[in-house]
Amino acid sequence: MDDLLKPLEILAMPRGTVVVDENLANLAPFLEKKGIRVRLPPKGLSDDKIAEDYLPNRIFITNNSKDFVDMASEYDIGIIATENVVKDPEHLAKMISNAIKNYSLWGIRHGYVLNLKNDNKHKLTPLVD
Description:
This protein is α/β, with parallel strands linked by helices.
């Protein structure tokens, strides 16, 4: 029976769940309409506490990606960086949903940063130790 479970273990990130930084909380209802489950950490937590308690093996959507890049490979965090895109929440949620699907982000097992661009020429950077 254990041998039957091993292929399933290669998917490190929970399918359909992202963590959204507090400064982008207005994205949550639009992402949920796209079938993506959203977790919002409590406001005021330190970056270290957010990374430790909410981000291991998850996708984190943030407007402050530089604050989390050093922790991404340690905790296997996928980061979607929104610094360089228009912040209209409905448009951004659609862009994020498409990027998750087009780059197969649910299945990446190690830390990475996906820098979103308005022209949809996003840049995916693996963060492997």
